[in-house]
Amino acid sequence: MSPAQSVTLSSSGSVKVCVGDACLGPPSEATPTLAYGDTVALGVFHCSSAAAGVSCTVSGRGFTISRAAIAPIGTPLAELNAGSYHGTVDSIGLTGSD
């Protein structure tokens, strides 16, 4: 994905996208890896991984992030919040770059 992008999903289903190198950072040592074909539920968050990308939702709203793009799930593109963000305990975030 060029330029680099990251996405976060709040516990209310709000999706925020950040574009540019400033959006990326190294994962913490405790960051789990979701293998292709696996799914995980963390509180209200539900994520699944496939070769085509990783999808995460809260009550039917969320995103799919792939090598090519970030696409909304249940959220019109116009509602996506572009710009910087700071993660909180009630959010999940993923990053992607080439």
Shape designation: globular
Mean pLDDT: 76
User: How far is the N terminus from the C terminus?
Assistant: 5 Å
Radius of gyration: 12 Å
Number of helices: 0
Number of strands: 9
Structural class category? mainly beta
Sheet with most strands: strand arrangement: 3-4-5-6-7
Unreliable residue runs: 82-91
**Helix content range:** under 10%
- The ordered H/E elements are EEEEEEEEE
Major sheet details: 5 strands, antiparallel
Q: Strand-residue fraction? A: 35-45%
Report what the structure shows.
- The protein has no helices and 9 strands.
- The protein has 98 residues and is mainly β.
- A 5-stranded antiparallel sheet has the order 3-4-5-6-7, with no helix packed on it.
- A hairpin with a 2-residue loop joins strand 5 (53-58) and strand 6.
- It starts with a strand and ends with a strand.
Quick summary:
The protein has 98 residues and is mostly beta strands. It has strands spanning 5-10, 15-19, 39-42, 45-50, 53-58, 61-65, 70-73, 81-82, 91-96. A hairpin with a 4-residue loop joins strand 6 and strand 7.
Write a concise keyword list for the protein shown above.
98 residues; mainly beta; five-stranded antiparallel beta sheet; four-stranded mixed beta sheet
